[in-house]
Amino acid sequence: MSTDEPKFGIHRPVTVALAGNPNSGKTTIFNALTGARQHVGNYPGVTVEKKEGHRSHKGLDIRFVDLPGTYSLTAYSVEEIIARNFLLHQQPDLVVHVIDASNLERNLYLSVQLMELGVPLLLAFNMSDVARQRGLIFDIPLLSQLLGAPIIPTVGSKSQGIDRLLDKVVEIVQTRAMPVYRYHYGTEVEQQIGRIVQQIDAHPDLARCYRPRWLAIKLLEQDREIRQEVQIESVLETAHNGIRHLETIYGDEAAIVLADQRYGFISGACQEAVKSTVESRHDVSDRIDAILTHRALGLPIFLGLMYAVFQLVFHLGEYPMNWLESSFHWLGGLVASTWPPDSNSILKSLLVDGIIGGVGGVLVFLPNIFLLFLAIAFLEDSGYMARAAFIMDRLMHKMGLHGKSFIPMLIGFGCSVPAIMATRILENRRSRLTTIMIIPLMSCGARFPIYALIIPAFFPEHMRGLILWGVYLIGIVLAVICARLLRKTLLKGQTVPFVMELPPYRMPTARGLWLHTRMRSWHYVKKAGTIILGISIVLWGLTSFPRPSAEQLEGLDGEQIQSALLRHSIAGRVGKTIEPAIRPLGFDWKIGTALIGAMAAKEVFVSQLGIVYSLGEVDEGSAVLRERLRADYTPLQGFCVMLFCLISAPCMATVAITRREAGAWKWALFQWAALTILAYGLTLIVFQIGSIISKI
Q1: Is residue 98 predicted with pLDDT exceeding 70?
Q2: Does the predicted model carry a pTM greater than 0.85?
Q3: Is it the case that residue 618 has pLDDT exceeding 50?
Q4: Is CATH 3.40.50.300 the right assignment for the domain spanning 14-175?
Q5: What DSSP state is assigned to residue 88?
Q6: Which single residue of 192, 605, 640, 674 could bond 598 by disulfide (Cβ 3.0 to 4.6 Å)?
Q7: How is the chain split into domains, by residue range?
Q8: Which CATH architecture has domain 187-279?
């Protein structure tokens, strides 16, 4: 075969566009690639110079087009419009982005936009010699993996790397490789992009003309050219609503928010794969990051902030919580007073003990939940949570997890269901499954009412924040250990690195904080008004029936009657049945009965205890429940209850979503069984050792 014949069966000239910032050395690379075989003219209708050249390499005829130098594809200038229109409408076989490697972060902004456009992409790190002289060391394989595009170092002025660049051009054109688009704009922006994409997909003609995701991003950026071409009212209206929402949340223009997110992605990539850099942006965010993401100080600062959040939740939440307690107790008393004093009405018991006692026992913790979500929203909107992810990334890698795993794990502190759904951002299935398995160990908001009931019952005020912080920390440590074990056994495989997005710090807007906190708190209220209401009624039935005969109750006082009714009920009998198995944990049949209800939803544990103790008609509410708990159990037993509820099998909703996201019941059942066994084993060890120590 002649060396001039195509080696890959491509018999047509292929088009390769060269893009890059002004002064990136793009023209030098173009000259090195094409030599004397160049043609210079102007683009139609403008005075901008158009350069084309040809080169044959390994039998492949390549047409190189030198696009005008541009910093972005936002289409504000003539050069940007020409470059973007060429990429959109001429559809080159490959884009070679020539980057000034000594000024990496600024140049990579265009790379991100090229990735968004969905063109086959090759990055030429030009001026690599200058970068080395400035002390920059690139981990090329890692950076290529993070950016999702191959990288070839070049020195255009010395024609270094040109042959390797040509080899890679031929390889990509033959394989038709596309960039692996890995950038995620964050929950708020992605939600708006998703809504616009849905509208675009509903119009096939529009979806065929543009990549839907790219088009949605351009509409959010209010790109003039694109808005003129999209004349579909539903699409434009959805984009307009998305822009307004983002501006409300972030207090800034949507286009600026998107730009900041891109720079955050780039900054994170450089922190991962560029060493000894002197090119970083030395702005306020960088100066703050020097402290908050410090290798030694970052983790203690993060843990300290979480401790401060828990102290805030307990101290500020106590006052509105007491007010709600009094309100529900007044309501229960009012309903109870409508019945004759000697009445033993089933309807009265259902309303007072089942509905008001059950749902009210959960809703009283709404102030604490609201404050917890408010604090998390502040840390998220300010940009700190992205730094927390960066800090935890080192730990994630040691666990064998993808760095992005921290994001769904963080969401897990609110609710396991959306957290498990958020694992979709992980491309690697092993990392995703591992993350799904350990998310229930992140102490969700549903467990908070259990802590808020037990901690004040057994521990002095000055220790409450510390105990709560410790419980959350135990869950994190267990998650680390379990993830490590899973990646060493059932889910072996290599961890795929990723870019930590580091957006600039912002002062959260009041409107944005309110929207985030309200949405999450309302989800909790809806659970109390629907799922927990239903479960409370079912549990009331289980604790009320079957009823003993009148002869069996004869001669008993009020409390003895309530106790006899419960012992005789289905729930009491089940609790009694499992009592021998849970006694080594420090639990009795009352706690066992409440744990049965918590299998459906963790919050139900509190309302179930209220029903177990028959406190629906008392005036003091949960204060009385705490007194009863103090009378029946020790602080060690109280801590063991929290430990067991932290680790044990997730709620039914979590089991269902695990089955859906993991794709098989075996993973959901494995998660349920493994966490239950782990909870039993650790609680057994803690209670037995604690009991021995207490006797010394």
Answers
A1: yes
A2: no
A3: no
A4: yes
A5: I
A6: 605
A7: 14-175, 187-279, 304-337+346-546+557-695
A8: Orthogonal Bundle (1.10)
